Amino acid sequence: MRIFQRIHQKLNWSRRRYVSVIISLLAVGYLSSAIYHTYKPLPAGLDFTGKLRHAEVNFLADQTYIDARGKQQQDHHIFNEMLKMIDEAQTTIVLDMFLFNKEVGESTLPHQTLAQNLTDALILKHRAQPTIEIKVITDPINSVYGGIAPEHYRQLRAAGIDVIETDLRPLRTSNPLWSGFWYICCQDAGNNPEKGWLANPFGQEKITLRSYFNLFNFKANHRKTLVVDTAQGWKALVTSANPHDGSSRHSNVALVVSGNTAVDVLKTEQAVGRMSKGDIPMVIMGEFEGDQSLPQVQVLTEQAIYDQTLQLIETAKSGQKIDLAMFYLSERHIVKALIAAHERGVKLRVLLDPNKDAFGRQKNGIPNRQVASELNDAGVPVRWCNTQGEQCHSKMIVKQDAKNAELILGSANFTARNIKNYNLETNLRVVGSAQAAVFKDANQYFDTAWSNLNDKKMSVDYSRYADESKFKYVIYRFMEWSGLSTF
Predict the structure, then answer these.
(1) From CA 49, how far away is CA 264, in angstroms rounded?
(2) Confidence (pTM)
(3) How far, in whole angstroms, is CA 208 from its chain's centroid?
(4) 235 and 373 share one domain
(5) By the 8 A CB rule, do 171 and 424 touch?
(6) Distance CA 24, CA 20 (A)
(7) Domains identified in the chain, total number
(8) Are residues 249 and 306 in the same domain?
(9) Is the domain of 75 the same as that of 155?
(10) Same-domain check for residues 144 and 246
(11) Of the candidates 341, 349, 348, 340, which has an alpha carbon nearest to the alpha carbon of residue 316?
């Protein structure tokens, strides 16, 4: 009897040991996957710092505001400039847009049909010039990661236009707690737009569980660029605006640049094309610069945006001015640098979205209200955009004194996810005389919003959305640190 008991004990010990070994191997595999995909090498061509070149550059803005009669008005220009550039294109159009769909979420406000208008413009252009090469790059969020088949994709492809959904798998993971598992189990699972059975967080069509598995990675091609060749040369638009119906009421900013700097933007899109097995046109041009009296412009992508932004803030001197307009502000080094600049005597103004609206859904104010509390406690002047269902979606920072100015503007929010080599992002940096038109126009946009000039009620006092909750502050810090966030 004792012999059988010993045999049974040994078998149980062997099973427990076997299970322990399996669990240990799975844990090691999960941790290895999470760590590797957080720090793995970036695909070639990302984290790009372009050459600083003299170039013609123009500032554009979409302003949404409350007028003197209390009615909401929209003074928007960016989408019209996109359509104009498409019309001017001769042989090449390369468009890279994050949100490019008709969804409006739960919003009941009237919206423009930006996605279909842009689709129609591209199709009409291809019909008028059948030899023109048109490439549309976008983020897989628009098909809910393959869970639906967007009608405008079908229309574009039927017209002979190449639609490239970005392959996000080569990017580093901003949410390693989930992605460490996803890269092992699910990255090659594919999807099926005809098998949806779960509620869609963005629209009405049903989606699969695989769509959610992709969504929880919280990574994106967040760029918003357009490059075309015109009779006057190459032109590029870099913006914070999306051709997305639900975003059509948002306030946004943009820059349009000409010459070799525009070609630099095209080069950065070639990197996305290679990463996604797409073919983006190559352009070979001799090096040249615009008139020396023009500002200098530089293309920045991914962490290069962070590096130059931190340098802009840290080199600001007493008496200089920094104006920041931002949809999401949460990155810790930038927050600390802003406070340190204020303590050095730099004149700061920070204009933030109150993070209360998201396509008809109510948000809890994280992260902006928590960061604003920190800035306000340090004495930094903070105001909120006076949003009424739309978002204050601008992303720009300007430093200047009486003589010189520097502007960084584009798709990137100042969050770890956006500027620490996780998302794909594109910004332009402009340096030059403070009297240049691009800086005057940017200043006019900011001053109007900050001071509610010209009977445009665009901002409200800090106290309107002040939130001193310690609990929410801890949540913000955890979300920023862990990557378990959508900002």
Answers:
(1) 9
(2) 0.93
(3) 25
(4) no
(5) yes
(6) 6
(7) 2
(8) no
(9) yes
(10) yes
(11) 341
Is 274 inside a domain boundary? Answer: no
Task: Give the 3-state secondary structure of residue 76.
Answer: coil
How large is the greatest C-alpha to C-alpha distance in the chain, in angstroms?
A: 99
Q: How is residue 128 written in tokens?
A: 């008028």
Residue 470's closest CA among 375, 394, 388, 369? 369
171 backbone dihedrals φ, ψ, rounded to 5°: -75, 155
Give the pLDDT score at 43.
Answer: 96
Give pLDDT, residue 24: 78
Q: What is the CATH number of the domain that holds 451?
A: 3.30.870.10
Distances (CA, A) of 164 to 98, 129, 161, 189: 12, 21, 10, 19
Domain assignment of residue 284, yes or no: no
| Domain annotation covers residue 117 | yes
Each residue's pLDDT tens digit, 152-182 = 999 999 999 999 999 999 999 999 999 999 9
Q: Check if the beta carbon of residue 217 is closer than 8 Å to that of residue 176.
A: no
- By DSSP bridging, strand 382-385 and strand 395-400 are unpaired
| Burial category of 13 from C-beta neighbours within 10 Å (exposed 0-12, middle 13-18, buried 19 and up) | exposed
Boundary of a domain, candidates 268, 284, 304? 268
Give first-to-last CA distance, the chain, whole Å.
65
Residues 308 and 203 in one domain: no
Q: Would you say 168 and 145 are in contact if contact means Cβ atoms under 8 Å apart?
A: no
247 lies in which domain range? Answer: 53-62+70-268
CB atoms within 10 A of CB 116: 16
Q: Are strands 53-54 and 296-301 parallel, antiparallel or unpaired?
A: antiparallel
Is there a contact between 54 and 296 (Cβ–Cβ < 8 Å)?
Answer: yes
Is residue 308 located within the same domain as residue 222? no
11 vs 22, residue with greater confidence: 22
Q: Are residues 138 and 210 in the same domain?
A: yes
Backbone angles phi, psi at 271, to 5 degrees: -65, -40
pLDDT tier at 282, thresholds 50, 70, 90:
confident
Token pair of 395 as six digits: 């992303």
Residues 158, 170: Cα–Cα separation, whole Å: 29
DSSP SS3 for 389? coil
| pLDDT tens track for 230-272 | 999 999 999 999 999 999 999 999 999 999 999 999 999 999 9
Same domain, 259 and 304: no
Calculate the alpha carbon distances from 146 to 46, 170, 211, 218, 325 in Å.
25, 17, 7, 15, 34
Strand partners, 399: 322, 406
Of 363 and 405, more confident: 405
In a domain, 454, yes or no: yes
The residue count for the chain: 487
